[in-house]
Specification:
Length: 286
């Protein structure tokens, strides 16, 4: 059978990563690092246009590959950032790498993204738990870069303890700027902690926005979703205006391994961002 050339090129491109260089590495917390990454080929770099909520499949040569969401602003055209917790062989190898080292990048991947166009002219609430702050940072930065297109914006961010909070310096500056309302909470406060104590779900009843002009974005550990949704539904926020990133269980990132299926959906291909309306009746989604 002769394979159609266009199809062959398409198939190969799924598996062949672009070579990229780590240009900067920053410690965000004791367990998370931020990597600034630049695709080497200038044409491919120019064509790497991602939407907030999309992800890449990163290859550490000789070790393996893994999916990572993109926390930087989609408006940065020269590079993108990844926030990586060292929990598996690929992420641990990445944590051992230095600026100047090469990695492979496939992407941007995923069809489902945070619908920033629909959210314009409305209030936006971002609810993030732990490492879930990384994927939502891209939409938060995008909103801040076009702040006048949105009504009020609230970030609710919960962590285990103050040390594990991502992007602390940025959050502090945003608190001072008053461009948005920021509500922080931790489970285990230390003596310096001045915010709320407990899970981020506890802060949702404080929201004053009305359902008709409010969009909600949610990203965090799987256990968080169910309780956040209960609180959001209690306040009558519309399921079609609630968007969740379901990155869990992704492996290949390109619809081949079937690890990420939920009902008839593949998170890596159909998501990773879904509206609550799309997935609320899918078993195991929440
Ligand atoms: S991660 Fe492999 S099919 Fe989705």
């Amino acid at each position: 059978m002769v394979m159609d050339l266009k199809e062959k090129t398409k198939t190969e491109s799924i598996y062949v990563p672009d070579i990229a260089t780590i240009t900067e590495i920053k410690d965000l917390t004791p367990t998370e690092k931020q990597f600034k990454i630049k695709i080497d080929d200038p044409v491919k770099r120019k064509n790497f246009n991602f939407l907030p909520g999309q992800f890449v499949e990163l290859t550490v040569f000789g070790i393996g590959e893994a999916p990572f969401s993109i926390p930087s602003s989609p408006n940065n055209k020269d590079y993108f950032e990844l926030c990586v917790r060292s929990i598996g062989s690929v992420s641990a190898a990445l944590h051992r790498m230095k600026a100047g080292d090469k990695v492979g990048i496939k992407g941007p991947l995923g069809k489902g993204y945070f619908p920033y166009e629909k959210m314009q002219g409305n209030n936006v609430v971002i609810v993030a738990g732990g490492l879930g702050m990384a994927p939502v940072r891209s939409i938060l930065l995008q909103i801040l870069e076009d702040r006048k297109s949105y009504k009020d914006v609230t970030l609710i961010y919960g962590c285990v303890d103050p040390q594990s909070m991502l992007y602390k310096d940025e959050i502090k500056k945003l608190q001072e700027s008053k461009e948005l309302d920021i509500k922080l909470t931790v489970d285990r406060p230390d003596n310096s902690w001045k915010g709320a104590v407990g899970v981020c779900t506890n802060l949702i009843p404080q929201l004053k926005y009305q359902p008709q002009d409010t969009y909600i974005i949610v990203c965090g550990p799987p256990v968080m979703y169910k309780f956040v949704i209960i609180e959001l539904e209690e306040k009558k926020y519309k399921p079609e205006n609630i968007f969740l990133s379901l990155e869990r269980r992704m492996e290949c990132g390109v619809g081949k391994c079937n690890h990420c299926h939920i009902g008839n959906k593949l998170v890596c291909v159909d998501g990773p961002v879904f509206s609550l309306w799309e997935i609320k009746n899918l078993k195991e989604a929440i």
